[in-house]
Each structure stands twice: as C-alpha cells, then as structure tokens.
Specification:
By secondary structure, the protein is α+β, with helices and mostly antiparallel strands. The chain has a domain of 69 residues: Mth169, Chain: A. It has 3 helices and 4 strands. Strands 2-1-3-4 form a 4-stranded antiparallel beta sheet. The chain is flat.
Length: 110
C-alpha cells in the first residue's frame, strides 16, 4: 500500500500543468439571408469537378485572440471590428491553455 501512495504522489507531480493564458476563438460568417459570394463560387467549382450532392457551401473567418480580456471586450471587438452586424453573425468561445512538464498542450473550454 505504501508503494501505491508514492506512485500517486509521483503521478500527481508529473501531471501538474502550467497555465499559458486565455485564448478566444471567434468565428464570423454570413447570415442565412445574406449572399456568401465566396461560398457560392466554391459550390460552383465543386459542381465543375463533377461532384454532385453539395447543397450549400458557407465560408467562415476564424480569429484567435490570446490574452487576458473580458467577454464584454470580446463582444466589443466582434461588433466593431470583426463582423458586419447587418450581414454577418459571430460566435466565440473561451479556453484556458495549459502545458504539462512534457510540453504537451491542453485546452480547457470555459
């Protein structure tokens, strides 16, 4: 039993992770009622390749912001810089990046 306790301690020490910081992932895309010219062009190109069965192609822009900023600040960035509120929608999620002693990265969504 004493060996088990020591094993648990060594595992716990090696499982410690260092926080690297917050990361915000933001996707911006066209509203269903707006024309997505790039998506429409790709759909036509797919058809020109002889591939059928594709109903729709939509494009998205992905932004990744690393830093300790608040959700309200992310909303301000999205609404004033990244998305056209008339034709586009945006969605965001926040995660915490961590690195273990071996250098492996993990992402915990908040």
């Amino acid at each position: 039993m004493n060996g088990d306790v020591n094993n648990r301690k060594s595992v716990a020490v090696s499982d410690q992770k260092r926080e690297l910081g917050m990361q915000w992932k933001i996707e911006v895309g066209y509203k269903p009622t707006a024309t997505d010219a790039a998506g429409g062009g790709i759909k036509k190109d797919i058809e020109d390749l002889g591939i059928s069965g594709v109903d729709c192609v939509r494009t998205l822009q992905m932004y990744v912001i690393d830093g300790d900023i608040s959700e309200s600040e992310v909303k301000t960035i999205c609404e004033n810089l990244l998305a056209d509120r008339i034709t586009q929608l945006y969605e965001y999620k926040c995660s915490l990046l961590r690195q273990d002693d071996a250098g492996a990265l993990t992402e915990e969504f908040l």
